[in-house]
Amino acid sequence: DLVLSGGEPTLFVDLSLLFGITISWTSDASGFSLQVSSDLKQWTNLAGPVSGAGSLKVDFGPARQFLRLAR
Known about the structure:
The protein has 71 residues and is mostly beta strands. The protein has strands at residues 2-4, 11-16, 20-25, 33-37, 44-47, 54-58, 66-70. A four-stranded antiparallel beta sheet has the order 1-2-3-6, with no helix packed on it. The radius of gyration is 12 Å and the shape is globular. The termini are far apart.
């Protein structure tokens, strides 16, 4: 498991080779959206804006993907 925090809501990343990635966040993430990008230039909402703690499963794909929790 990977935990990312730095003054913003905490993100938890759980990686499973069989089941993909599960991203979860703490209750202080209200108003943030989970976003995905393939090039770090254009971002698309996967979930959000969220209204508290939650999680989302992200399947593996053939292309590289970047995830972020943003306002």
